[in-house]
Amino acid sequence: MKFLADENIPLKVVKKLREEGFDIISITELNPGISDEKVAEISQNEDRVLVTFDKDFGRILFIEGLKVPGLILLRFPPKNIKYIYSRLKKVFESDVEFYGKVVSVHEDKMRISKL
Prior knowledge:
Elements (H helix, E strand, L loop, with lengths): L1 E4 L5 H9 L3 E4 H4 L5 H10 L3 E4 L3 H7 L8 E4 L6 H13 L7 E5 L4 E5 L1
Parallel strand pairs: 1-2, 1-3, 3-4, 4-5
Antiparallel strand pairs: 5-6
Helix pairs in contact: 1-5
């Protein structure tokens, strides 16, 4: 499974996940400062599930009709890098099929719905 981290995911988290063997790249590495629409376009073009803290992506997907292969929406407070990393690692290691889904990740649960 391939992932694309939005700019709001710390680069240290992305690099640590990559060291663990996950196929993840960051907008910070590719093209920082681009619009959410461009982020969605990269996600779609590279067939990568988008990972973000930005709840605007729900609006972009459902109201504006932009497409991404899947969305992991982080809905927990980004306490520190270690915490974000540990939560994402657990999510990535779960049995969830992220393609075609919106996965809202909270501190104590995940909510999954179809795109």
